Amino acid sequence: MKPSALVPSILLAASLAAIAADDATPLNLSPAGPTLAQLNAAKDWTPIFDGKSLSGWTGSGYEVQDGAIVCTPSGAFLRTEKEYGDFVLDFEFKLKPGSNNGIGLRYPGEGDAAYVGMEIQVLDDRHEKYKGLAPYQYHGSVYGTARSLQSEKNLLKPAGEWNREQIICVGDHVKVILNGETITDTYLTGIKPIDGNPHPGLARTSGYIAFCGHGDYVAYRSLRILDFKPAAHVLPGNPDNTPPPGFSALFNGKDLSGWKGLLKGPNDKPHVRATLSPDKLAAEQKIADEIMNANWKIEDGALVFSGKGESLATAKAYGDFEFFVDWKIPANADSGIYLRGAPQVQIWDPANPSQFQNGNQKGSGGLWNNKAEGKDPLVKADKPIGEWNTFHIRMIGDRATIWLNGQLVVNNARLEYLWDAKVPLPRAEQIELQNHGNNLWFKNIYLREIPY
Questions:
Q1: 9-18, 85-94, 238-247, 409-418: which range is least confident on average?
Q2: Which pLDDT score is estimated for 4?
Q3: Model confidence pLDDT, tens digit, residues 241-251
Q4: CATH level 2 (architecture), domain 3-227
Q5: Are 404 and 411 a contacting pair, CB within 8 Å?
Q6: DSSP sequence for 210-239
Q7: Residues 204, 96: contact at Cβ < 8 Å?
Q8: Rounded mean pLDDT, 288-292
Q9: How many helices and strands, by DSSP H and E, does the chain display?
Q10: What sign does the dihedral 145-151-157-161 (CA atoms) show?
Q11: What is the Cα–Cα distance from 344 to 339, expressed in whole angstroms?
């Protein structure tokens, strides 16, 4: 927390209305349980504190005591030597009565972390000296920007006891879980800071992790990190259907394991499909799978579509993820990738004159059904017809970033839900390989799930 936040003058009359309005807005928090299950299953955690020294850290006023990093009375600032962009930080911390600290994210190395980066509050916010806090000053809030559940409900353990916390910072998503319950869950794109101050750090994509102290005792231990830095946008030399580190293969190059047929309309739409009874869904899926098996084959390690039948869908639903798929099409063909069951990342022949009125000459990779941002690709990156292309897609919240053959074609654009503007994009749904009645080829389909 900033020192100025400790005095009543923080509640300036000019900002009272904005703060009160934000305080009245219900928090939209996703549950912690599924997130923690994902984190508990992860196997590639990396410790960032060895429990014995400050190796890997730089700063002053912190020391190691009993296997923990402790802020001393002269403690002001300590940061990692390595930069991180997209990650999950898992740690334990302990406060004394009235303790005040913070965790800087994507900090550039100079300036006030709460503004030039982001600062997650670490505060004994129930102490009497903090009466009158603004909503964005409680423990776990993104300082000045997003309030936490701590402003309504105390989930901190008593001073002197260890707390466990996870901070998810991936793309524009920031989620904080305290002692098993979500307390902050926000998306930064387009967000207006509550405190009315400029926060240019919200736009940063990487930086240091920092402890922002005020000379109060705070202890941190068991610090570890999951790094979700985006993979290289193309994978030259990677053997076919062999996932890169951290990814799983959705297609094994041999059979249709892990895939299912797309149900016929209107049950192809997620919000309609969700209304089917279990028996009706099973019956419809049996028909769809028969059609799939008749028209989707494996040839030379690739999924090949006959040009008849329905699209192909993953058997599993996915929420936030990083995804690779190689594809090729014949002349004049049309296809796409549905994300969370919604159309679509466009695939088509840029030279097909019958589609010029629809903008195919701009190339593949756009979110073609969008009415606004992302509809058209930023650049034309298609390879010649008959050659393999590579999509690299990151889906965070309801926003997609897409690279085609290593070139950025969509930058953090919201995927609109075509089927019904009144229905939000599903938080998790199947990925689909779409067809428009022509031959298609797909291979090297890899996915890394991202906790949310």
A1: 9-18
A2: 38
A3: 999 999 999 99
A4: Sandwich (2.60)
A5: no
A6: EEE--S--EEEEEEEEEE-PPPPSS-TTPP
A7: no
A8: 98
A9: 5, 26
A10: positive
A11: 7
Sequence-ordered alpha helix ranges (H) in 235-299: 270-273, 278-295
Yes or no: say if 325 and 241 are a contact pair by the CB < 8 Å rule.
no
* Measured distance CA(172)–CA(96) in Å, rounded: 32
In angstroms, rounded to a whole number, what is the distance separating the alpha carbons of residues 194 and 211?
23
Amino acid at residue number 287: I
The span from the CA of 273 to the CA of 376, in Å, is 29
Q: Which candidate, 412, 418, 379, places its Cα nearest to that of 393?
A: 412
Q: Which of 339, 338, 390, 329 is nearest to 360 (CA)?
A: 329
Longest dimension (CA), the chain: 72
* DSSP structural state of residue 393: E
CA 153, chain centre distance (Å): 26
Cα-based distances in Å from 404 to 172, 231, 322, 401, 439: 21, 14, 14, 10, 20
Quote the mean pLDDT of the chain.
93
Query: From start to end of 255-388, where are the E strands?
Result: 259-261, 296-299, 302-305, 312-314, 320-328, 334-339, 342-348
Choose among 284, 288, 327, 329: nearest CA to 307: 329
Q: Give CA–CA dist 406/408, Å, rounded.
A: 7
Tell me how far apart the alpha carbons of residues 204 and 399 are, in angstroms, rounded to a whole number: 17
**Domain boundaries of the chain, sorted by first residue:** 3-227, 248-450
Domain range 248-450, its CATH number among 3.30.420.40, 2.60.120.560, 1.10.1060.10, 3.40.605.10: 2.60.120.560
Q: Which residues contact 82 (CB under 8 A, 6 or more apart)?
A: 48, 56, 208
Which has more pLDDT, 25 or 367? 367
Per-residue pLDDT at 8 exceeds 60: no
Instruction: Indicate the helix (H) or strand (E) that contains 167.
Output: strand 162-170
Distance of alpha carbon 286 from alpha carbon 267, whole angstroms: 13
Residue 14 pLDDT class (50, 70, 90 cuts): very low
